[in-house]
Amino acid sequence: MGKLPLESILTLEQKIQLIILDLLAIIILYETLLSNIIYNNDFKWLWVTPIVLTPIIFLFSKKGFFHKNGSIYKGIYIGKILILKSEIKLNDFEAITILKFKKRKNYSSILVASHGRVSSTFNTFDIYLLCNRHTRKSKLISLSSLDVCNEAINFIQTYSNLKFEIYSPDFS
């Protein structure tokens, strides 16, 4: 059984927004509980705790891979603990590759009002499963670093018979 947590699911901007929303939820819930809208003290902690802890758990979640009984799974981890998994179907694929894409992120924040459009460009590295002639591909995972991608490729090759190839489709 192999586990490979790779990188965070959320970007830095998403983490900041989640922290702000969680703090607002804590303040609102605290004020609500102080104003005695909820009368039963045992009941209030029953519904307040998941509302506050769920965003905090998402802050530390990572995406990665998991191997068990000859199958490879995409997984979501918190630390080294596997929370969710979904099986990757490798039946029709013989190769694996990395494709690099340049993407643009438009930010929605206070900066937009004062400076106009604010955006940044960044590279993503997507791992794809390929058929033998590279005419059909299936996206496996998107990562932010080539080193992390290579680590994922090595993990997948260790537990499967896929080979790494340069993407060059043959439509003849």
Report the mean per-residue pLDDT as an integer. 83
Structural class: alpha+beta
State the helix count. 4
Alpha carbon gyration radius: 21 Å
Overall outline: flat
The share of residues in helices is: 25-40%
Order of strands in the sheet with most strands? 1-2-3-4
End-to-end distance: 41 Å
Amount of beta strand: 35-45%
Spans of at least 5 consecutive residues whose pLDDT stays below 50 are none
Encode the helix/strand succession as letters: EHHEEEEHEEHE
* Number of DSSP strand runs: 8
Q: What about the largest sheet? A: 4 strands, antiparallel
Number of domains: 2
Write the layout of secondary structure elements.
Blueprint: E1 2-8, H1 12-34, H2 41-59, E2 61-68, E3 71-78, E4 81-87, E5 95-106, H3 110-115, E6 119-130, E7 137-143, H4 146-158, E8 163-164
Parallel strand pairs: 5-8
Antiparallel strand pairs: 1-2, 2-3, 3-4, 5-6, 6-7
Helix pairs in contact: 1-2
What does the model show?
- The protein has 172 residues and is of the alpha+beta class.
- It has two domains: 1-88, no CATH class; 89-172, no CATH class.
- It has four helices and eight strands; from the N terminus they run βααββββαββαβ.
- The protein has helices at residues 12-34, 41-59, 110-115, 146-158; strands spanning 2-8, 61-68, 71-78, 81-87, 95-106, 119-130, 137-143, 163-164.
- Strands 1-2-3-4 form a four-stranded antiparallel sheet. Strands 7-6-5-8 form a four-stranded mixed sheet, with helices on one face.
- α1 runs antiparallel to α2.
- The longest helix has 23 residues, at 12-34.
- It is flat and about 70 Å long.
- The chain crosses the membrane at residues 20-39, 45-61.
- Keywords: Membrane, Transmembrane, Transmembrane helix.
